Each structure stands twice: as structure tokens, then as C-alpha cells.
């Protein structure tokens, strides 16, 4: 399990490390604000757009092989990005990083979901996986902030290489191999429609955040994305060898987890940017110290996932943990929504961070476990891809909401109170984000009715569950 957790770290660290190093990238490569957007968008579009396809490939060739290929490609792309001397090469490297991350991420989740049949071991494994998923962003913020401030933004990319190499070595030598689906046909049309549709939707949401909802480009892209995804679902219903097996799309518990994850992705996206703005722009802390001061989010998420959720999951109904965690995280965001320039770090910010991190760690363990349970091993990669793609779409929606509220605040502000207006834009977003988490809790409470994994008669890892219709 340690190898699989380590395999996730390069991806999680890279995203936050690169984003916090963007000012250094802009200065060294002489980029305008608009010139930075493609470097960020290239990764998001490649990663989010190819997750379904990456999960399908993992099912066909075997999750271990897909993980090794993904790690090797991600490491090479990181070297390419770190050595980039012009914007074009950096954009290409970021797109490659996203593509290989889309292969290794569902492969890692697939290995967790199929490698631990015992309920207690499975709960412990998902606890570690969720801890890395929930806390990796804050660790990336710390790493990226320190490297960008003390040394160079390039090291924020190079730092992923030894981690990926170590994980690759461990995966190749320690993980048991699982054969792929010998003789299975590659659903090239499903992969094309699903990837193009998701990428178009993500691109449209990205442009909506940068421009406006009513601008022709984002509206057109979103419409194309919806049409392509509609065609994808139609093809999955009629194809003889679909990318998504029928039991994956008809499972009510899985659908509830996917919807809850999309809403949680939209909600939790605002947390780290808000804290970064408050610490850096309002209180003047450098990137390195900002990363240190945000660590309570990661620490509480790790404790909740590994010491609470992992211990309770095998005997507690998933929706109890999911709803409790999401409501706790929402309360944390509400506390943080009340901060201003005069708020103190200890009495006003730390409690909200602890609750938000703890709630996320508590909820993510049963979400990951329930969304992948009941999927046959040969379809576990696709099940993982569905959940992770939903999270990416949710985060993209969160970006649009974040950008719109911040823009509205800045348009109403004078030049003298720019920092205060920026902070208020972020805290406005936290109220909406808390609402998204509460809605996610409601969805999970209504749709996720699975029994505790350790309960008598509960479905096992490979046992199909009842469907929604």
C-alpha cells in the first residue's frame, strides 16, 4: 500500500507546487497573465479529459503495468517541464504530465480497490489513499512555496522525478501483477467521445471563469462537451464492448458517490486559494511560510482518514461517514468565510482549517471505497476513472464560481482596498463552497445506502450490487 500511496504523491505535489510557483515562472519566461493560462489549462484538460480513457487502458493492459508506464511518463514530462526554456515547451510538458497522470491515477485507485479483499485491510488501504488525496495538496503548497522562494520554480517540477522514480521501482518489484483483459477490444469510439466531451466541458468551464458565462466561446465549448458526453453515454448503451460496463453506470451507490465527489470537488477547491490569499496578500507571509501555516489542513485530513474513517469503515454504513465528514468540512469552510484582515491565525483560522481537513479525510475514505466496490476487477480502472473525472469536473465548476465572485468584488472595489476586496471575493466563495458540501452530504444521504463492508451479507469487492433501475 505504501508504494501505491507514494505513486500518488508526485501528481498531488506537482499541481500545487507548480501553481504556487506561477509568479516565478511568469517572471523568468517573461509571460503575461494570459500567457500563463495555457500552462495551467494544458495540464487540467489533459488530466481531466483522459481520466476515463486512462481507467479503460488500465483495465485492458493491467493496472500495475499502466501505473508503471504512467509513472515513467510523468517523470520524463517533469524533466521536460523543468528544463523548458520557452513557453511552448513548458505547455507541451504540462500537457504530457496531465496525460500520464490520467493513466497512473485511476491505475493506483484500481490497485487499492482490488488488492485488499478483507474489509479491515481494505478500509486501512483506503484510509492511506484518502489521506494522501486529501493532504497532498497542502504538502504540495509547502514544497512548491519553499522551492520557489528559496531556489527555483524549476525544482518544483524536478522534485517530482525522484518520487516518481522511487514509486516506479517499488511498483515494478513489489506490486503483484494482474493480467489485463486478454482479447478484449479497445473501445476507441467511446474513448474518443468521452475524452473529447470531458475536455471540451473542462475547457468551456475554464474559459467561463476567465471570460464570462455569456461569452460565445465558453457557451459553445460547454454545449459541445454536453453533446459529446451525451453521445458517449448513448454509445456505451449500444456498444458490444463498452468502455463503461453496464453495471458501473447503473449502481445507485456508485452514482451517489460520483455526484457527491463532483460537488465536494467544487466545494473544497476554494479552501487552499483562500488561505493563500489571506496569508500572503493580507498578512505578507512568503510562499514557504504560507505552506507551513496551511499544514493543519493536511494533518487533520491524515488523522481523520487513517485513524478514524479507516477504523470505522468496516462496521459503519458509508453514508454515515460521508455525510458526517462533508457536514464537518462545510462547518470548517463557514468558519473560514468569516475571516478578514484583522482575524488572528490561531483563534480564527486554525479551527476552520482543522474542521475542513478532518471532514474531508473522514468523507473521502468511504467515497473512494464505495464508488469502487462491486466493480469486477476487470472494470475497476473504469470505475476509478468515473469517480476521478467527476472530481475534476466539480473542481472546474468551482473555478468558475471562484473567479466570478472575485471579479464581482474587485469591480466594486477602489484601488486602495484591492487586497481586502480580493480576500472578500474568496470568502464569499467559501459560503457557496460550504453550500456545495452540504448539497453533497444530502446527495450521499439519499443515494448511498450500502451496508458496512464488514456486515454479514454485505457485498464484497467483486460482488455486483443492486442497480438504480
Automatic annotation (TrEMBL):
<dbReference type="InterPro" id="IPR020846">
    <property type="entry name" value="MFS_dom"/>
</dbReference>
<keyword id="KW-0046">Antibiotic resistance</keyword>
<feature type="transmembrane region" description="Helical">
    <location>
        <begin position="320"/>
        <end position="339"/>
    </location>
</feature>
<feature type="transmembrane region" description="Helical">
    <location>
        <begin position="153"/>
        <end position="174"/>
    </location>
</feature>
<feature type="transmembrane region" description="Helical">
    <location>
        <begin position="287"/>
        <end position="308"/>
    </location>
</feature>
<feature type="transmembrane region" description="Helical">
    <location>
        <begin position="351"/>
        <end position="374"/>
    </location>
</feature>
<feature type="transmembrane region" description="Helical">
    <location>
        <begin position="91"/>
        <end position="114"/>
    </location>
</feature>
<protein>
    <recommendedName>
        <fullName>Major facilitator superfamily (MFS) profile domain-containing protein</fullName>
    </recommendedName>
</protein>
<feature type="transmembrane region" description="Helical">
    <location>
        <begin position="386"/>
        <end position="410"/>
    </location>
</feature>
<feature type="transmembrane region" description="Helical">
    <location>
        <begin position="66"/>
        <end position="85"/>
    </location>
</feature>
<dbReference type="InterPro" id="IPR036259">
    <property type="entry name" value="MFS_trans_sf"/>
</dbReference>
<dbReference type="GO" id="GO:0046677">
    <property type="term" value="P:response to antibiotic"/>
</dbReference>
<feature type="transmembrane region" description="Helical">
    <location>
        <begin position="126"/>
        <end position="147"/>
    </location>
</feature>
<dbReference type="GO" id="GO:0005886">
    <property type="term" value="C:plasma membrane"/>
</dbReference>
<feature type="transmembrane region" description="Helical">
    <location>
        <begin position="217"/>
        <end position="235"/>
    </location>
</feature>
<feature type="transmembrane region" description="Helical">
    <location>
        <begin position="256"/>
        <end position="281"/>
    </location>
</feature>
<dbReference type="GO" id="GO:0022857">
    <property type="term" value="F:transmembrane transporter activity"/>
</dbReference>
<keyword id="KW-1133">Transmembrane helix</keyword>
<keyword id="KW-0472">Membrane</keyword>
<keyword id="KW-1003">Cell membrane</keyword>
<feature type="transmembrane region" description="Helical">
    <location>
        <begin position="41"/>
        <end position="61"/>
    </location>
</feature>
<keyword id="KW-0812">Transmembrane</keyword>
<dbReference type="InterPro" id="IPR011701">
    <property type="entry name" value="MFS"/>
</dbReference>
<feature type="domain" description="Major facilitator superfamily (MFS) profile">
    <location>
        <begin position="1"/>
        <end position="452"/>
    </location>
</feature>
<feature type="transmembrane region" description="Helical">
    <location>
        <begin position="186"/>
        <end position="205"/>
    </location>
</feature>
<dbReference type="Pfam" id="PF07690">
    <property type="entry name" value="MFS_1"/>
</dbReference>
<feature type="transmembrane region" description="Helical">
    <location>
        <begin position="430"/>
        <end position="450"/>
    </location>
</feature>
<keyword id="KW-0813">Transport</keyword>
Amino acid at each position: 500500500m505504501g508504494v501505491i500511496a507514494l505513486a500518488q504523491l508526485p501528481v498531488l505535489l506537482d499541481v500545487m507546487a507548480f501553481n504556487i510557483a506561477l509568479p516565478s515562472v511568469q517572471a523568468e519566461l517573461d509571460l503575461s497573465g494570459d500567457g500563463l493560462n495555457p500552462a495551467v489549462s494544458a495540464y487540467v484538460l489533459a488530466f481531466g479529459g483522459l481520466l476515463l480513457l486512462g481507467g479503460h487502458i488500465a483495465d485492458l493492459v493491467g493496472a500495475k503495468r499502466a501505473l508503471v508506464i504512467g509513472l515513467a511518463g510523468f517523470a520524463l514530462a517533469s524533466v521536460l517541464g523543468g528544463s523548458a526554456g520557452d513557453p511552448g515547451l513548458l505547455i507541451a510538458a504540462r500537457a504530457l504530465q496531465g496525460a500520464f497522470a490520467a493513466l497512473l491515477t485511476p491505475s493506483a485507485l484500481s490497485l487499492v480497490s482490488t488488492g485488499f479483499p478483507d474489509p479491515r485491510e481494505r478500509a486501512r488501504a483506503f484510509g492511506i489513499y484518502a489521506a494522501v488525496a486529501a493532504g497532498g495538496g497542502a504538502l504540495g503548497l509547502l514544497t512548491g512555496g519553499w522551492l520557489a522562494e528559496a531556489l527555483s520554480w524549476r525544482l518544483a517540477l524536478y522534485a517530482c522525478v525522484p518520487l516518481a522514480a522511487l514509486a516506479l521501482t517499488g511498483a515494478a518489484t513489489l506490486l503483484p501483477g494482474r493480467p489485463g483483459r486478454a482479447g478484449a477490444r479497445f473501445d476507441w469510439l467511446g474513448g474518443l467521445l468521452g475524452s473529447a466531451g470531458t475536455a471540451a466541458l473542462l475547457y468551456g468551464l475554464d474559459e467561463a471563469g476567465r471570460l464570462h458565462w455569456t461569452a460565445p466561446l465558453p457557451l459553445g465549448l460547454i454545449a459541445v462537451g454536453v453533446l459529446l458526453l451525451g453521445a458517449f453515454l448513448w454509445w456505451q448503451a449500444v456498444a458490444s464492448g463498452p468502455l463503461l460496463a453496464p453495471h458501473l453506470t447503473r449502481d445507485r451507490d456508485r452514482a451517489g458517490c460520483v455526484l457527491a465527489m463532483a460537488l465536494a470537488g467544487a466545494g473544497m477547491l476554494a479552501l487552499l486559494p483562500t488561505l493563500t490569499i489571506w496569508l500572503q496578500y493580507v498578512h505578507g507571509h512568503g510562499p514557504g511560510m504560507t505552506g507551513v501555516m496551511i499544514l493543519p489542513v493536511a494533518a487533520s485530513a491524515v488523522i481523520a482518514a487513517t485513524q478514524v474513517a479507516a477504523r470505522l469503515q468496516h462496521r459503519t454504513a458509508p453514508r454515515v461517514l460521508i455525510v458526517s465528514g462533508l457536514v464537518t468540512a462545510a462547518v470548517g469552510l463557514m468558519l473560514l468565510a468569516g475571516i478578514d484582515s484583522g482575524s488572528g491565525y490561531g483563534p480564527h483560522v486554525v479551527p476552520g482549517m482543522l474542521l475542513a481537513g478532518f471532514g474531508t479525510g473522514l468523507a473521502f475514505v468511504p467515497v473512494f471505497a464505495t464508488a469502487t466496490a462491486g466493480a469486477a476487477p476487470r472494470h475497476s480502472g473504469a470505475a476509478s476513472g468515473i469517480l476521478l473525472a467527476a472530481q475534476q469536473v466539480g473542481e472546474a465548476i468551482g473555478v468558475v464560481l471562484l473567479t466570478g465572485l472575485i471579479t464581482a468584488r474587485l469591480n466594486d472595489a477602489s484601488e486602495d482596498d484591492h487586497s481586502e476586496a480580493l480576500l472578500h471575493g474568496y470568502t464569499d466563495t467559501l459560503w457557496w463552497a460550504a453550500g456545495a458540501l452540504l448539497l453533497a452530504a444530502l446527495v450521499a444521504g439519499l443515494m448511498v445506502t450500502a451496508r458496512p463492508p464488514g456486515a454479514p451479507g454485505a457485498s464484497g469487492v467483486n460482488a455486483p450490487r443492486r442497480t438504480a433501475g
